[in-house]
Amino acid sequence: MSSAINNQVNLLLNGDRAALARVLTEVENDTPTGRHALDVLFAQTGRAHVLGVTGAPGTGKSSLVNQLAYLYRHPAGSEPAQRVAIIAVDPSSPFSGGAILGDRIRMRDLAGDPGVFIRSMASRGAMGGLAHKTLEFAQVFDAAGFDVVIVETVGAGQAEVEIASLAHTVLVVETPGLGDDIQAIKAGILEIADILVVNKADLPGAEKAVHALRAMLELARPGCMYAGEHVLGTSIEPAIANQQNGWSVPVVPAIAVQPGGTEQLFQEVQKHLDYLRVSGEWQLREQDRLQRMLFETVRDTLEARWRVIVPEQKLQHVLEDVKKRHLSIHEAVQILLPNETKL
Questions:
Q1: Residue 337 and residue 243 share a domain
Q2: pTM
Q3: Domain membership of residue 323 as a residue range
């Protein structure tokens, strides 16, 4: 197996798209082959700019991603085109469990471009707006030499803030007509924003939405509405104490379906990338991401080993005692957890 996957990894590193697709499938299915590929590729990661795009359903996230990717591929002036990978986390089909793939329909402008790779992932019930292997997918694309990895979440509310622990730059997308005042006070989602986007800015109420968001940012200063922050788990901590060196979150109007309607947003993304590199925030976010991946992998590994050690019959017996209130939760845990040395 080692020789075969090493061959696939070498092909991937040399730009073979078919090998890349096969490795992604192995990683998504959490096979030994996929885990070995991640081990081999790990040293090649840490270079791609990971851009997260989140927001409520219907805000036009896919159209924005389409236009941003197009601008990366067709830059103005003498700037070189950048290779772009897109991870579109779709809701799971209630029938097959797979991704519904609606995002690919909206990204037809990118079809046939060898510098763009679009991969849909089914959320499969995962909370937080991401799929279980989104972090690993981003690493594979990073190792494969993509300059930018854009992650579009399922569609977020107040709790779906997992993207902040994955992306270097987080775009939170709002739109007029979704209850602007209510949207503006959703602190859980707004606190993770590096850039706030009011898409569909040609619709009535767009100016009101922009003013409402800017007002919320003004009220939050000098608090946590700065991109000089990083998220680990559910805590949000300032990464740079000096607010003068922080990043003031812009509110950017955009019209994703109109030519030139996302150019201002694209420029703000580039400014944030410059800020990350100059301030040292890039390294802080990378460290947080690696720590989170380590903790999650340890947790998943321990749970898998525990399920092997504890017989199913014993688990069901203890569970029945808990349901009948014969055992408390803590008493049940003491029974089910074996000696630490066995783990």
A1: no
A2: 0.82
A3: 310-342
